[in-house]
Write a structure and sequence with these properties.
The protein has about 850 residues and is of the alpha/beta class. Among the domains are: about 170 residues, no CATH class; about 160 residues; about 90 residues, Immunoglobulin-like (Sandwich), CATH 2.60.40; about 170 residues, Galactose-binding domain-like (Jelly Rolls, Sandwich), CATH 2.60.120.260. It contains 21 helices and 43 strands. The N terminus is likely disordered. Pfam families: Glyco_hydro_106.
């Protein structure tokens, strides 16, 4: 009874605001092409979003569709604001939230950005600064949003840019929840007109005599120190004049803020910290070794990299440190080519975001499209199609229900991370940059350039692998830390057992002062391998260096300060818990809800299926599977260590929660056996395009694209039917399951008139309830829906007229002109023999 009540409470615990807007449900980017929107279609699409289980939309005006020019609505015009207000009002009626970008396309810029406010790039020529306008225009701009990108370091560019919005929103009543700033993409920008003045004021010396050191490639003395000062000045101007200015304006006007800080030359932790909802980005496909999980072979890792949980943790760390409830993500950008993304590919990417601390998913995304526009409607060039014309639209609600169940727990719990890891950005700034403009851009794509290959990255990769729960902390954030009565490091929102400083060379004296203050108060600090060697910055370096080294010696003598290479040993001495689940090949995040510890655990690999594990902060646990409900885990003591028996197959995820009253058992694993589902199959095509292929009989399962010329282009749903027998001895076994093998892509299973469920994620395994099977004459019906890729192969041969968009039109995943006509058929249907699995 207790578990049933707990499940009901978890399902009910949705995060809402005053208008009953759910943040537990996933939201979606919603591109308004040319802002050619009409009220009847807005309402119709919002109704669809609501029924599919979405919680809100994010309006992004972009370029338009050809043929719809007469319906284009200029951005921020009275008509555009009317449509925006209508969307917010209709959303409230449905319980859907609305966010919007403070602009069109990306990054910020537009018609009110003069050349004087445009982004600037400085190059050192003959020892002097040579400055030019980058002439970068807003990318993918909507009508009324075209223009120059403004200088993110300019003292008044942001405020002048926002005057358009002051005027536009002066009479607006129905406002979006949040304003949004996309990732920093001011390519080559590295200067502003008062940079030299600001540099001297902040760094204490004139940069001009030292400009040539910025271009140093032979490790001249002091070059690294000057590069640090130059980058730090840019970072401070970016935070104060760009991020902070926009955030303050948004809050003054009643908006929350969602901010993608990545890609910028600033310290991401400080920039994410400026926003109400820090937002990271999952671009491309992670290479999870989950059996059966497909990746698009055309995706270019060299060009775009792959998603990385450590990069994602910059957003969640800022939120955890400052006590912000929501951390969002632009999710599944370019997950695979158009018309090729399955729900089974999306779930592991979302699970990776969850274990990285993300709890507010924004799909990337959906495109506003007139309801009566011919298939496939209006589409955005770089997204997974989550809209009504998607091949998984009928089953989209299943993914959304999974996300909602997970996020309802993740949002209503607090982080339980033991370790703070200092991010030594000055060591990065000291190195020559490979990005345009000679500045380090901390992007989500090529994380090897600024994260993985540095000592900080190597340390945090090891901590992640070894099962430690940690957040990152910046120099600026360290100043806010205090030591509480238990000796923990407290940020005011979260507490940590210890701080670890990666092996580094440079550190600001202000940071060293913070460490001294914490150590004197009893805070535990670990230096990995060595203490820092140099004070950051060139100004009066020799004078400051002497004091710096004296303070380093003073700090290293404190009782709570340790220096060593055996990180595991030092962390254990400071009471840090090492979780065994990571050693087993599982990924996790640990949280606390109502004083009780909760783990979200995801099997994103192929090393674990089931076995005994110990949980660092739970002795007895219940397993809450968002797809299959709650069950109590068996428990035993092994050499004085409490263990629970967990079954979690590759691709599966669950919550593990504190429980009581579990019986102690010594062993629960039996020998796994199976019997094949034998019989001849009938396949009948039920619905889809371009037409229904003829019914066929199959002696063995395989892709339906091999059946006939018409089946090779078919996109839709087919029903498989088979009659089969089951050995009498198997019927008495407990825990019977149907292993569907390789399903392309979603399967609804019925045996003897009883529906087992709809299966859309790896592994495709269905529980068979007691009494459903019989010894002779079982009838199984399986309806399978495939991708739309095979139909688009034909469509692009016959009628490629759907590609009718301005700007980039529709590019493929290699950023070449999209053409599906030469694709090979995508396997569809049930591809492998089915079997009934049981344990002896």
């Amino acid at each position: 009874m207790r578990l049933r009540i707990l499940l009901c409470l978890m399902s009910f615990a949705l995060t809402v605001n005053a208008q009953n807007i759910s943040t537990a449900r996933p939201w979606t980017y919603w591109w308004w092409m040319g802002s050619a929107v009409k009220k009847q279609d807005i309402k119709a699409q919002l109704d669809i979003f609501k029924k599919s289980g979405l919680g809100g939309v994010h309006i992004i005006p972009i370029y338009g569709a050809k043929g719809a020019e007469k319906d284009f609505i200029p951005f921020l015009s009275p008509k555009w604001l009317e449509m925006m207000e209508y969307t917010v009002a209709e959303g409230k009626k449905l319980g859907l939230g609305v966010d919007m970008t403070t602009g069109t396309g990306w990054p910020f810029g537009g018609p009110n950005v003069s050349t004087e406010l445009g982004a600037l790039q400085m190059e050192v020529v003959d020892g002097a600064p040579s400055v030019k306008n980058t002439k970068q225009m807003v990318k993918r701009a909507a009508p009324g949003g075209e223009g120059l990108v403004f200088n993110p370091f300019h003292k008044s560019a942001m405020s002048q840019y926002l005057t358009r919005f002051d005027s536009a929103f002066s009479a607006v009543r129905e406002k979006p929840r949040s304003m949004y700033m996309d990732s920093y993409e001011a390519y080559g920008a590295n200067w502003t007109e008062d940079f030299l003045t600001e540099f001297q004021k902040r760094r204490g010396y004139d940069l001009r005599p030292n400009l040539t050191l910025l271009k140093d490639s032979v490790n001249k003395q002091n070059a690294g120190l000057v590069r640090i000062d130059y980058q730090q000045t840019l970072a401070e101007l970016l935070r104060e004049r760009y991020a902070n200015s926009w955030t303050k304006w948004s809050r003054d006007h009643g908006f929350k803020t969602r901010y993608q800080a990545h890609g910028s030359p600033g310290n991401l932790l400080d920039l994410y910290d400026e926003s109400d909802i820090p937002e990271t980005e999952s671009f491309g496909t992670s290479r999870f070794p989950i059996p059966g999980l497909r990746v698009d072979p055309d995706y270019s890792i060299k060009q775009f990299g792959t998603p990385n949980p450590l990069a994602m943790k910059f957003a969640s760390s800022a939120a955890h440190f400052s006590g912000k409830k929501l951390v969002s993500s632009e999710t599944s950008t370019w997950l695979a080519n158009h018309f090729k993304v399955s729900l089974s590919q999306i779930k592991p990417q979302i699970d990776e975001l969850f274990v990285s601390g993300i709890n507010h998913i924004f799909y990337h995304g959906t495109t506003y499209s007139p309801i009566n526009d011919p298939y496939p409607g209006w589409l955005f060039y770089a997204s997974t199609n989550y809209g009504p014309t998607s091949h998984f639209a009928e089953h989209f609600h299943l993914l959304n229900k999974y996300v909602e169940k997970c996020q309802s727990i993740l949002q209503e719990s607090k982080p339980d991370n033991d370790v703070l890891v200092y991010f030594p950005i000055h060591d990065l700034w000291a190195k020559p940059a490979r990005s345009s403009g000679g500045v380090h851009l901390l992007e989500v794509h090529h994380v090897d350039r600024w994260l993985l290959d540095l000592p900080f990255g190597k340390l945090t990769q090891q901590l992640w692998k070894d099962g430690y729960s940690f957040d990152f902390v910046s120099d600026r954030q360290l100043e806010r830390l205090k030591v509480d009565s238990k000796g923990n490091l407290a940020s005011g929102a979260t507490s940590y057992k210890t701080l670890i400083i990666p092996s580094e060379t440079y550190m600001p004296e202000e940071t060293l002062a913070s460490l001294l203050r914490l150590a004197q108060a009893g805070g535990k600090i670990i230096f990995q391998g060595k203490t820092p060697e140099q004070v950051a910055g060139f100004g009066k370096h020799d004078e400051r260096q002497k004091t710096f080294l004296e303070n380093v010696v003073q700090l290293s003598r404190k009782n709570t300060v340790q220096v060593g290479t055996d990180v595991d040993k030092l962390l254990a001495q400071n009471g840090v818990v090492q979780e065994e689940v990571s050693k087993k090949g599982l990924s996790y995040i640990r949280k606390i809800k109502n004083g009780k510890v909760i783990y979200f655990v995801s099997n994103l690999g192929n090393a674990f299926t089931e076995g005994w594990i110990s949980l660092g902060k739970i002795k007895v646990a219940a397993k809450n599977d968002p797809l299959n409900g709650i069950s109590v885990l068996a428990k035993r003591d092994s050499a004085g260590i409490a263990q629970v028996y967990l079954k979690l197959l590759p691709g599966q995820s669950c919550f593990l929660e504190e429980e009581s009253g579990v019986a102690i058992v010594s062993n629960v694993k039996g020998k796994v056996k199976s019997v094949p589902v034998s019989g001849n199959w009938d396949i009948t095509f039920l619905k889809g395009r371009p037409s229904l292929p003829e019914t066929a009989k199959l002696q063995k399962l395989g892709s339906w694209t091999e059946l006939s010329d018409s089946a090779v282009y078919f996109s839709g749903t087919a029903r498989y039917t088979v009659t089969f027998d089951v050995p009498k001895s198997v019927l008495t076994k407990k825990g019977l399951q149907l292993d569907l093998g390789d399903v392309r892509e979603v399967a609804t299973v019925k045996i003897n008139g009883k529906v087992l469920g709809t299966f859309w994620s790896i592994p495709f395994i269905a529980d068979i309830q007691s009494g459903i099977l019989k010894e002779k004459g079982n009838k199984m019906e399986i309806e399978v829906t495939n991708l739309s890729a095979n139909y688009m192969r034909l469509r692009d041969k016959q009628l490629p007229d759907w590609k009718k968009f301005y700007d980039i039109n529709v590019a493929d995943i290699t950023y070449k002109k999209f053409d599906a006509s030469s694709w090979q058929p995508m396997p569809s249907g049930l591809l492998e023999p089915l079997k009934i699995v049981y344990q002896e």
